[in-house]
Each structure stands twice: as C-alpha cells, then as structure tokens.
Amino acid sequence: MRSLRHITWLVVGFTGWLVLEAPAQTSPPPGDWLARATVLAAAPPCAPDVAAALDDPHWYVRARAIQTLGRQRCTAAVPALLAHFDHEDWDNQARLLVALGQIGDPAGLPLVAQYATGPAGTLRTVALAALGGFTAAQVAPVLATALEQPLNRDEKCIVARQIGVFRLGDCVSRLADWLGQDEELDRLIAVAQYRTGDQAAGRHVLEVFDRLDAPTRLQLLGDWAERPDVRATDLLLKVLRSDSPEHRLAAARAWAAYGAQMPIAETLTVLPDVDAEVRHVLVAALGGCPAEETVAAVIERLKADPPAEARATYLDALDTLDREAVTAALLAARQARLPFAEQALEKLGITPEALAARLAVPTLTPTARITLAVQLGQLGDLRAFDLLRQALLSGDEVTRCAAAEALGQLQDARAVELLLDVLDDEVPRVQSAAAASLARLGMTPARLVATLDAPNISLRTEALRLLGRLSDVTTLPAVAAQTREGEPLPVRLAAVAALGRLRHPDAVPVLVRLLSAREPALRMQAVSALGEIGEARAVAALLPLLRDPDAAVVGKVVAALSRTKAPSAVTPLLAALQHPDWRVRAAVARSLDAWEDTRIPPALAAALEDPSALVRFHARQSLLKLAVAPETLLPVALGQSRPRGWYGAYVTLQELAPESIRDELRRSLDAPDPKTRALAAALARRYPDPDMLALLWQRLDAETRFAVRWWLVRALADFGEAAREGAMKRARSKHPRLRADAMRVLGWLPSNRESQLVLREGLADAENQIRSAAVEALGRIGDVAALAPLLARQSGAFTVAPDELVDALLACGEAGRAVLRQAVAGSEPAIRALLLQRLGADGHPDALPLLLEGLRDASPLVRQAARQGLARQSDERAAQALAALPDEP
C-alpha cells in the first residue's frame, strides 16, 4: 500500500537536490517562463494545463509540471510522463522517476524498474528510492534483481530501507553481507530484519531507535501497535514524552496494544505528563487491564498526595474504570480517612444524601436496597444498620441472606449480636451467611466457646465451625468436649471437623478414639481430621483403616494419607492398588502423585491395565504429574496387545517423551507389525532432533502402508522448517508415492513461494494420488486461487474427487466457502447436491439462502441435500422451512 510516509524522505531529499541543481542549467531566454511555472504550483489536481506544460519549451516549466503531477498523484498523466522521459535532460529524468514513484501507478513501474536495475549513477539511485511508491508485490522482484548488482553506500541504504518498508522476507537474508560497512546501513538492515520477523534484530533496533529518521520511527511505532513487543516498554515511555505530537500519539497506541499486560504503574506515572489526546488513549487502555489491580494502583497514586493537576487526572481515570471496583476502593479509602476519597465519591455521586434519596424510591428491589445500605454504612451513616436489621426480618430467604452478608461489611460492633441471632435461622443458607459475617467481624474464640452450651444445635454447630476457622489452640479442650458420646451427631461432626482445622497433635488421641465409633459419618470425619493434622501418630492410626470393609471409609483414609505425605504410607497404599473395590483403587491411583518414591511409577504403570476406566485415568494423570514414564510402557503403547493399557501408556509417553525409550522407539519404526510402526511414528514426533528426522525420512521412503505413511508425514511435519528440504527433494521424485507424501508434508508446513509452486504443479500430475495429495495440501495452506478453477469442471471432467476438493476449499476458511457458494448455481444436479450438503454440514449461516433455494430445485437429489443441510443450521428460518415442508418419499 502506498504511503506518503514511505517516500517523504525521497521527496525532500532528491527534489531538494534537483532544485539546487537548477542554476546549473543554461540561462533562460527572456519571456514569461517564470510566471508559467508559478501558475502550475496552484493548479487544480490533474488539470489539463499541467500535463500540457510537459511540452513547454523551457526546462524549468517542465520541471515544475513534473513535480506538480507527482505531488498530486495524477494517474492520468503517467502515459505523458513516460512519453517525455527520453526527451528530457538527466535532471528532469530524475524528477520524472520521482513523480512516477509518488503516483505509484503500475504503468510507471517498468521504467522505474529499468533504471533501478540499470547502470550505476544518479538515475539508478533515484529509481531505487522511487520504488517506495509502489506495492510490495510489484517491488519485490525489482529489488531482488538490484541485489545482484554492485551498489554504492547510498543505494544499499535505500534498498535496505525498501526491504524493511515492504517486509520482503525473501530478500532480507541477503542484506547480512552488508553488515559492518556503515552505521546507518546497519541500522536500516536491523529494521528490515526486525520488520520481516527476526525478533533477534529487535534489540539493535531498540538501541538505535533515536537515530532513525522520523518516518521509520513512526513505522515501528505502528508495528508495535499491531504486534506489541515487551522489550520496547522503556522506549515507548520515552517517546510518550517526546516533542513530536504524532510520535507521542503513535507511542500511546503501541502502549495501549499491551492490553491486559500493559504495565499499570508506568502508565499511571506518565499519565499526568502527556497531552489530552495521548491521555485519552492511555486512560481508555487502562479499562482493559484487570479492574481491581488498576483501581488499587490509582488509589495508591492518590494516597501519595500528588499535585492538583495529577490528582485531577487520576480522578478522571477512576471515572472510566469499573464502577463497582472503584466504589469499593473509594469507600475503603474513606474508612482509612484518606483525603481524596470524599472528593472522588462526590464526583461519582456516592454521598449520604444521594444514597438516601435513592433508598426512598418505593420500587427499589430488596437486593439493590441492601447494596445501597452497605454503601451508606461505609460512608458512616448510622441509618445503614437499621435498614439491614429490617431486611433481616424479611420473609424472603434471599433478602435475609444478603442482609446477613451485608452486616459483615459494615464493621459495626452492633452487628455481632444480631448475626448470632441469625445463626438460629431455619434456612441453612442464611445461617452460613451469618457465620461468614461473624468471622469477618472477628468474633472472639471466648464468645464462641460460650455459645457451645446453647440448646440450639445449629448455633453450636456453626460456633464449632467458626472455632475451627479461627484455629485458636486454646479452644481445643472445649471443642474436644463436644465429641463425647451423647452429643447430637451434627455437633460431634462439627467438633471433629474443628479439631482437624486446629491441626494440633493434642487432638490426635480424641480423633483416634472416634475411629471406632458406630456412625460411619463420624468415622470418616475423624479420618479427614487426622489427615489434616498429619502427625506421625495420626498416620499410624489411619493405616489400619485401609483394611476397613467400607470402601467409602477406605477412600477417605487414602485421601487423608495423601495430605500427610508420610513415607510410611507408601507401601500400604501400593498394596491397596490391588483392593477388590474399584473406588479404593481409583482413590489410591489419584493420591500417589503426592510422593516421590521409585516404587510408585511402576505400580501406576501396572494400574494402566486396571479393569476400571477411572483407575486407569487417575493412574495416567498421576504418572503425568510425577513426570515419570517407566520403560515398560513402550511395549504396551506400541503393541496394543493389551487393549486396556495401551492408550494410557501411549498418552503418557507422548506427553513426557522420556529419553530412556528413544533407542527402542527408533527400532520400533522397523517393526514388522504396521500398527506398531504407525504408533512409533506418532511417538517419534516428540523427539525433534536431526537423527530422528533422517530416520523418519528413511522410513517414509521405504514404507508402503498408507496408515503408517500418514503418521510418518505428521511426524515429519512437526519438525517444521527442518523438514522442508527433504520434502522439496522428494516432491521432485520419480516415485508417485514419495511425491504424494512429500506434498502432504508441505501442506503442514508454512507456505512459501517454492512449495506453493510445487503443489500447484501437482494438480496437473497424471497420478491420482499426487493430485489428491496436492489438493489436500493446498487446502491446508489456504490457496483458494489454485483450487477454485478445479471446481468449475463438472462430472467426468474432475481431475480429483469432488469430495476431496470440497474438503480442501472448506479448509481454506471464508474464501473457500465463498467459492463453493458461487459454484452452486452453475453446477450439475449431482455436484449441486454435494455442494449444498457439505455447505450445510459446515454449519456456516452464509449458506442458508442457498439451502432455502435448493428446496425448490427440480432435482430430488438436490432437494434432499438441501434438507440435510438445513437440519445442520442453527438459524430459526431453517427450522421453519423444514417444518413447512411435506414429507418426500
């Protein structure tokens, strides 16, 4: 795309030089040539008089006409400019080249290209610079030719700049030979390398950024706005304070491109120092950062008591952020008596008077009323407590629950007694909300212990739960007393849970006695509590329970032992992997990843063959968490002789890729069983080294089974660019099978011009398998232009299977679907039916009009295909059309 930015330096430099050369011309004859030239500067765009001035007898008038036409980008004048080129002196010829570059019309490119690749001299230098006005596709071959010629220092700089401007990746590698010749040239080469994807060159670009010209700096800032570079953070901060408004704004957009990863602290530091336009971009970008983190950072800046202008900036920023997070932070700041909080709250409309007015609205919902009451309370208004107390009397449990939660946010001591009463509410949800608020209000252990003598079971249960959460060891005797025989079961369970939360060894004897309780729930709760404590005596008490006849109890014991991570538990747990109940075995397999013991991986490997799918799943997950893959897994993964275990072994080896199996895996690629060879190829993908690459190519050359070759192709494709040379070599092979496989490999690799050409040639090959492979590969790389002509052929004229062609076009995305939609109208019924069926199965809504039209087709085959396609559409119109249709035989 042409841009004035790309050729500004050209216009300023060469045009200025040419103007300075004007005195060297022969003295003009007397006449009105100066007036004629002056008039041209004010001429309307592409005025006929300007083009006519190209025939003026005075060189200066012609020069001004050429410059005016170039500046106005007058495409219509290109033929005239070309026609006059050979009749001008060299300086006007230079102006003509500049003008053609400014216009950028393809008709002017051949002349510019001719001189850009011609003999050394001023005109070649000017022509190379004029290439900046054309497109990348037009310029690339010209620059490639220019690189073959000896160039002077200025020409090298121009070529390096153009390669960077147009991002010509195929040319940039050839600039490396010029490094070290000149500092400016090195800078331009670094920019070209960086803009064509070489991230390593980014460091040099960042170092020399200040010495680059203004258009290049703007170009890089624009690049960072599209593809952020975290290394440019310090540089962007510097540019944000630069003198150029254009550069400041571009830097702000690049800074905003960091999105949620944008450095919040640095943004807030620079925010007060920038102009309004830049500040608007930065403030808007803050909205994309994590809300709570951003609000907290702004509050911290306001706490530092910044100057008035900075404070106003930060308050304006708060006004654009998440209102809920800002309100909560400002109310907390007010409670901390920070001076800015009142001003900010007023700006947001959160004042006692405003809140009271909103609370007076009769149609306000209970939830909204409670939210406003909490805000009122955080502003220090005593009316908030009375409002929440009234809400607790509501007959609606949701309102009571919300009020109980809100009381915990007030930090009002009067709420404690009220919440203790709410613990007696008949709804467990309200009880839980009250208990959470009490914990938030810092209910004291002494008060909770006193509550244990209350007759209300729910009150005692919640008090025990809170005592457990408080983890105050001084309450252990009182809590342990609640576990005695005769107490209600809910109280005993809560007391046992609280003892576990206390995590103190003195609770172990009490819990051990409860392991023999009659109630299974109490035994299981005691098991969990012992696991929470994790002391040696607790582990010793848990181990015998692995033999309990109740599988649920054993499962609890296993989970508890895994929390202790006691080495003495490993042996009994490994034995429990043979327990007859699958639930126990699954619990053990899931818990064994808590230990690092050499006996565990082999046991888990054996568990991959367990009859229970859940046991096999947990065994596999534990092996992956331990990151250990025993060598015994490879025969299982490759042989498939044991169907229960092979998948788990295969997935484990695929994820971990252990070095210990590499040699055996290489030998398995030559196994007599094709299934073994295919699975070995699939696993070989995880060993991307040159030796494995060479072996895979060797096996592909010799392999005859398609399934094995498919996995070999996938494995080779995972090697990326390292596999391209081998693929290109085999794509020219005399053996059709090798050519087809090589094309499939190329389809998985990033496309380049050479591989695309090979694949397109494959479409015309005499071998079906090669054409099929080429179609598949072109679909993967999205080459719609090569595939679309194939679809224009009908019936017997197809050179590839229509299904394969449709698959490839669908793989091309929206462009491929568009080709398929366009082909429907002119196709034969059978092809039309296939297209409608596949477009409908694709599910894209753009196919809906074609499917509806297909219901009226004269061919029953097409109508049936349209029905099938409509059934896959989610649009309501498709369902209505199907419902309105009569049943067809």
UniProtKB/TrEMBL annotation:
Pfam families: HEAT_2 (PF13646). It comes from the Bacteria. GO terms for molecular function: oxidoreductase activity. SUPFAM superfamilies: ARM repeat. Gene3D superfamilies: Leucine-rich Repeat Variant. SMART domains: EZ_HEAT (SM00567). PANTHER family: DEOXYHYPUSINE HYDROXYLASE, PBS LYASE HEAT-LIKE PROTEIN. This is HEAT repeat protein. It comes from Chloracidobacterium thermophilum (strain B). The lineage of its organism: Bacteria, Pseudomonadati, Acidobacteriota, Terriglobia, Terriglobales.
